[in-house]
Amino acid sequence: MNLLGDFTFSQSSLQDDVDCPRRFELRYLKRVRYPAPETQDMLEFEQLMQHGADFHRLIHQYILGIPTELLTPFADEAPLNLWWRHFLADGLRDVPDEKRLPEMTLIAPLGDYRLLAKYDLLAITPGERAVIMDWKTSRNLPKREWLAAKLQTRVYRYVLALAGDELNDGAAIPPDAIEMRYWYAEHNRVISFPYSEAQFAEDERYLLSLIAEIEERDIFPLTTDDRRCRFCTYRTLCGRGNEAGLLDEYETDFEITLADDFDIDLDQIAEIEF
Ligand code: SF4
Hey, what domains does the chain have and what are their CATH numbers? Predict the structure, then answer.
């Protein structure tokens, strides 16, 4: 099939396609808005999402230079207060301070399309190194292998290597000067991924192959991992059950939190907020 000529891919849309081609089709091609809740505990889920958005906003304002004493009163509620304390102590440890660009969006070409990455923070020492920071508010720490395979890890580094020259005094940022760090606020832990020419080439091959698969598809199949459907807004539309799963079940099954795995929602909030 032919996608629209100006279609812009992102880590979220590609991750949806990898997790469930049908979800990619419903969300991005047919643009179906379906009202089923993602979890049974919607109140808890919404609080988690709101705290995550508030935390991102606080860090954004901090990096823009708003004094800490003006921001801290907005982090007076658990778990935001713990995340904020951890951030002030260690969130920017060993992060370049020559150029810090919060909430930065870059777009690179990918085949006939565009690939977008929206970064929580790009921290760059021009001509030396570039660190991508991504703030995570999961209650569980994911396994490193799980994170390494996520489209976010691949797309964010790839796009910076291709489209970061304007932030690096006009010179392309070599892959081996790029590092991606996930910083887990609840645990005050960093999980870091360096980059390399070989990984860049492998990412390009992989990303182009995903797009070629999408272009060739006539039918977007439903995922065979129907555990995902319990936490998907389209489950009744797909005939995959009526009842949403519980947040705790999701964390047990997928070893992470719903908010981090379905981070399209957080992205949408962030785009509205910022
Ligand atoms: S309900 Fe299941 S099959 Fe349908 S879009 Fe969601 S994850 Fe895919």
Answer: 8-68+89-217+225-273 (3.90.320)
